[in-house]
Amino acid sequence: GCMGLDQCLNFDDFQKLARQRLPSPIYNYIAGGADDEVTLRQNTESFASVDLVPNVLRGVETVDLTTNVLGQRLALPIYLSPTALQRLFHHKGEYATAAAAEKFGTMFGCSSLGTVSMEELAKKHKTPQVYQFYFHKDRGLNTAMMQKAKESGINVMMLTVDSITGGNRERDLRTGFTIPFRLTAAGLAQFAIKPRWGIDYVRSEKFSLPQLDSHIKMKGNTLTIGRYFTEMLDPSMTWDDVEAMKEEWGGTFCLKGIMSVADARRAADIGCHGIVLSNHGGRQLDGSRTGFDQLDEIVQTVGERLDVLVDGGFRRGTHVLKALALGAKAVGLGRYYLFALAAAGQQGVERALAQMKAELERDMRLMGCTKISELNRDMLRFR
Ligand code: FNR
User: Fold this and answer.
1) CA dist list (Å): 115 to 92, 197, 211
2) Is 283 annotated as a binding residue?
3) How far is CA 212 from the centre of its chain?
4) End-to-end CA distance of the chain, in Å?
5) Using the 8-state DSSP alphabet, how is residue 181 labeled?
6) 104 is in an annotated binding site
7) What is the sign, positive or negative, of the torsion defined by CA atoms of 309, 315, 316, 317?
8) Nearest-CA residue for atom 24 of ligand 1
9) Which residues pair with 51 in a beta bridge?
10) Backbone phi, then psi, for 257, in 5-degree steps?
11) For 71-113, what is each residue's pLDDT tens digit?
């Protein structure tokens, strides 16, 4: 039978519900990865390479999940990673996500490809805000976006550096998923069988990309997300550009998509406040190692000099605890909250966060820990 939000206990349940509600091009855009999706699968599988070794009899009636990361105080060691196009997933889009993040005291990142204006979003929700930046060929656009982010009082700039060209997302090529989003004749049938999504979508504000619209229109065509990266983003970007951008921003600055130890060191050398170890949820370079697998060595190399964050494949509280025990300052969620958003909007994201919070509290107790800072490498064994 049909499942409801009340029956959603874990990631797979949210994913199932999202799949029931979404037209297939949109569902597949969220769910998919690059090439053969090896990295996409590996992201979650890699947690099995490490086992938790609990301690008992520690007096764990109260558990404190608060943490400090990138100059922000979060009530939870997890945050909602920036993702594109949220109003396609649920008509309230980024507003729903930000409202849920605010309720749970964590950070939310608005994407360059966000479907609501970052100024409006930052005005409405005072939760720690992250602005995720893509470095465009059009330098004027870069400056204008950064200026807007500054004026909006956004706390953290997160520059994504793993998408300098589009990943090969074959699901999008097959379904014809493009931006700006178009209801093609061929796609229409798929939308007709998801009436509830269709009615909400048609009734809500016209789809747009407020951060970029004029620039995409200038091109006068529709693009797959892969082609957007390839055509709009600047593949000539180097560390010099990052340093210049960091100067221009002036505030807390973080690089998303760092994977090598050498790059982590370089990020620390130029004074970045943080890095996110990430393979973009397996959507860019297939066959890439996972952020989680790189965590130990990178924390040991630069962990004293900047905050090391990680994302990719986190589906359980225990996955998060393993990363924290290796020294990650916080863990980013992507599809976990996106499927919940697609399933039930703000309520869905709140349920996803509540589930994750309950798992974290339970697992902390079972590990014999009452504070995040008590988690350490001695509580893990590598297989
Ligand atoms: C993303 N991600 C992403 N990252 C980014 O820096 N800017 C963006 O606009 C997007 N957009 C985006 C859309 C969708 C649909 C997904 C699934 C992902 C990557 C995201 O921030 C994060 O790195 C991964 O999603 C983490 O992996 P999991 O949690 O999805 O497995």
Assistant:
1) 10, 17, 8
2) yes
3) 19
4) 40
5) -
6) no
7) positive
8) 281
9) 381
10) 105, 25
11) 999 999 999 999 999 999 999 999 999 999 999 999 998 899 9
